[in-house]
Structures are given as structure tokens and as C-alpha cells.
Known about the structure:
The chain is of the alpha/beta class. The chain has 14 helices and 17 strands. The protein has 3 domains: 3-170, 3-Layer(aba) Sandwich (Molybdenum Cofactor Biosythetic Enzyme, Chain A); 178-253, Alpha-Beta Plaits; 268-415, CinA-like (Maf protein), CATH 3.90.950. The chain has helices at 10-13, 20-31, 46-59, 77-85, 93-106, 153-170, 190-197, 228-246, 258-269, 283-288, 307-314, 318-324, 329-343, 390-415; strands spanning 3-8, 36-42, 62-66, 89-91, 119-121, 125-127, 136-141, 144-149, 178-186, 207-213, 216-224, 250-253, 273-277, 298-303, 347-353, 368-374, 379-385. It has a 6-stranded mixed beta sheet with strand order 2-1-3-8-7-6, with helices on both faces. Strands 14-13-15-16-17 form a 5-stranded mixed beta sheet. The chain is elongated, with a radius of gyration of 27 Å. The protein starts with a strand and ends with a helix.
Amino acid sequence: MQAVVIAIGDELLAGKTVNNNAAYLSARLALLGIPVRRQLVVGDREDDIVAAVVEARGLAPFAVATGGLGPTNDDLTLGVISRWLKRELVLHPATLKHIEEMFARRGVSMPAVNVGQAQVPAGARVLRNPLGTAPGIIVEEEGWTLALLPGVPAEMEYLFDHGVAPYLEEKGYVGERVYERVLRCVGLPESAVAERIGAFPLPPGVHLAYLPHAGEVNLRLWGSAPNEGTFRERARPLVESVKGALGIHVYGEGDEVIEEVVGGILSTRGETVAVAESCTAGLLAGRITNVSGSSAWFRGGVVAYANDVKEALLGVAAETLAAYGAVSEETAREMAAGVRSRLGADYALGVTGIAGPTGGTAEKPVGTVCFGFASAGEITSEKAVFNGDRAFVRHRAVLYALDLLRRRLLRKERRK
């Protein structure tokens, strides 16, 4: 079985909203063994919506559309589809009651326009939406099935996972499922990763995709299999080869992010870290504290942008700043040592750099970032130069700092 995904909304065509819904639906359908033959994107125009649905029906026995189910005048999907199917819109009492209860819980009266969201094509299967007012709708029509979902991402995802996917299972439309293992790598560009592992043979039934993004490279191993255990066994030789070739550059698997990895190591050891930031201005601390439970291993951070603040709060010597400048490995080391001492952490990071677009020199171009690391046994530093705009340089600096900490922690582990 194949499928078509239709995303509806003027904001998608205008580039105001990224079409993440189509990506989500395609990925979920693929995992169910239902490949997506085509993604279609149309605006809030009746003739365009009809054209997309007609095209979808000619391409695959199942289509899912997202968007245009709201209560406002530009939400046309429900009416357009009903007219095209020649099905009357009928009131669905349970949905109306649900909408009324949602407004009652907010303590406000339900606007009359929301009654329209409780109308569905006659004979349709209705999927209750606990997260919003628009239900999901599944219509079967002469060997073809169309699912209509809201455009709000959280609602769309919930209704697909709890309504559409079970429906596809019930109907026997699910094929041999697709399983995957994702290895997350840092510290190497995509070309270097490919150079190290490109010659490895792929096991039968296992595919490999390179997914580079903002300083990381994810390696997605995927394939169809009767069950996850079978796939993992098929993929095991390649996983072992990749890990052996990339070594410390593989920092995690699946959805694991580097700050979770660092936190896991520190938590296991009962150790802590603190940070001192200049050019990243709190972004490093923010990313660390995105991890639930980070209070157990993160002592805190100091944003020291101005030089006098670096001196007063972190103990950076005026002589160091005068001789080497704020953006220097010497300053980064003193920032790390100072914040470690003041906040009582086992480890500390210092980050100082030139995020741009101004401030660069021939000796220290825009994108230059210096990193300090301090522990009870050492105070060291590293320097990197990142290409990109201000936001990208700051993002890369945060990633680099977290990886620096990870590498130091792992080196300590190997010494034991």
C-alpha cells in the first residue's frame, strides 16, 4: 500500500510556516510500512484543494490531509471535501459536547462559529481530539480512504498516532514495518564521516543515510523487517564497524542529545559542572538546563559579557585581558577556573568569542571562539573558528563546549 500526504494552508506556500506536518506524516507512515508516493502542498483555495485530492486519489489508495479544519473563514477543507464527495455535513453530537466542555473549562462562552467544527461528512469516522476543537475525520469512498487532520502540529500528531495509525492497523493496510537505528556523531564534517565508513558493506536489508545538521552528523540505519529484533541483528555488524571507525565522535543513539549524554555521565559519578559565558550569553546554560533533572549536576552559570564583569565576577586578571584580549585561550581558561571556584563545581567551561558580524580582525576573524576547561587536576583550552552568521556561530560554540566537556569526562574514565 502507498499513501499521499496533502498539506493545506496559504502560510505554507508563503513560507511563513515550515511544512513539518508533512515530514511527520511521511515518517510515521514509512514506519508503518506504507511508503508515501507524493507530498502535495496547496493553499486555501477550493479549486486547488480539489485538484490535490483528485491527484491523490489517482496515485494511492490512502491519503491524509492536514490543515484547514479551524472555525474561521479561511478554513475551507471540510466544506470543500464534503462538496466534492457529495456528502452532506451532519452534526456530530459528541464532538459538539466536547467543544462546549473545552470552552466551559476556560470559563468563556463558545462562539457560534465553533459549531461548524462539530459537523462531519455523513458516514465518516470521527476521531476525538482531546487537545483541540477540530476532530480528525476518516472517509472511505469506493476503495479509497481519506483522513482529514487539523493543522496544529500537536493535534495532528496525536490524532495520527491514536486514531489514524490504529485505523490502518485495523484495516490490514500496514506492511512490513520499517525500523531504524540512529547514531549521533559530532566533531567531524559529513565528508570525513563518509570517508571513514563509506567503504563498509551494507548488510542485506539495511540502508544507510547521512543526515548532517549544524555541526553534527546523524547516521540513520534503516530497513524493513518482521520485527525490531530481526532488524537490529541485521544492522549489528554495520553499527559495530561504524562505532569502531568513528570512535569518540559517536556520542549517542536515537533521540539522545549531547547535553543528556553529558548529564548522564556527571549524574552517574555524582559530579557537577558550571559555565562562564561571554559570546554565547547564556545559551550554553540554557541548553544544559533543557535536560530534566539537570539541577543534580549543573551548579549554575555566569554571563560575563563586559571585561570588568569578567574581572569582578570571574576573577579574570586585568593583565590577561590587556595582554591577550577578551577573546583568547588565556581568558577562557581564567573564566573556567574562576566560575569553578566561585560556584564550587567539579568541572567548568569558559566560552568567549566573536560571533559577528562585526568585531573580527585579521588575527581573530569573526567566528573565532576560545574555550576553557577547568577541573581539580587541569586547566586547559582550545580554539575553533566557525563559519556562519551570528546565530550559527553561537550555536556551534555551545555544541563545541558540550563536546569538549564530554571528551574530557570520557578521557578521565579511560584513565581509571
